[in-house]
Amino acid sequence: METTRLVIVAVGGQGNLLASKVLGEAALISGVPVRMSEIHGMAQRGGVVESAIVFGEATSSIISDGEADILLGFEPAETLRAINRCSKKTMVITNTATLPPFTVGIGKGNYPEVDEIKGLLAAKTAGLVSLDAMALARKAGSPMSVNIVLLGALIQTGALGFTKENVIEAIRRRTKPAFLEKNLKAFDLGMEAAKTN
Asked: Which residues have a Cβ under 8 Å from the Cβ of 189 and sit 6 or more positions away?
């Protein structure tokens, strides 16, 4: 496999770390070398959580500005905030459901329009897949499965080259039994949504 650099950005509590573990497991199942690192902001307070995952032969998990092949964003403003990691070759997959920060709630900040965010992302990258992952997660039976919906969209793009079957096996290995069926449904819904994007 060619070296592929993936950056995942999310707000604390959205399941970024589980998504990273599922992708790491899928890489192992697929026989692909993988390196991972995570940056935890004030995750418990809704701060940003970022994962960097490098698939293929690499000596480091550090992804510098402009080096991401794929940017996966769990929250649209956080996706936009990570735009400096992208280049004109980067594929972006983002959730369109917003989680405005506390400062917006108390009137100390402004949240950009989602269509404006999408326009900025599309203009600076190779391609954009955007979907309301929260609506799809609720349809799957759990708002906690936003992360798995987005993994489904990512796998549907073919950007990683992992088979659906290997990712499903990774979800089975990394998900608690009580959440497995909802997560599998969420994964399928994410894949379907990305087909029509």
From this structure: 136, 139, 140, 149, 152
Phi, psi of 94 (to 5 degrees): -135, 145
pTM reported for the whole predicted model: 0.93
Per-residue pLDDT reduced to its tens digit, 67-95: 999 999 999 999 999 999 999 999 999 99
Domains of the chain: 4-195 (3.40.920.10)
Phi, then psi, of 40 in degrees rounded to 5? -105, 115
What is the spatial distance between Cα 112 and Cα 189, in angstroms, rounded to a whole number?
27
| Most distant pair of Cα atoms in the chain: their distance | 49
Give the C-alpha separation, 24 to 10, whole Å.
Answer: 17
State the Rg of the chain over Cα: 16
Round to whole Å and give the CA distance between 79 and 98.
11
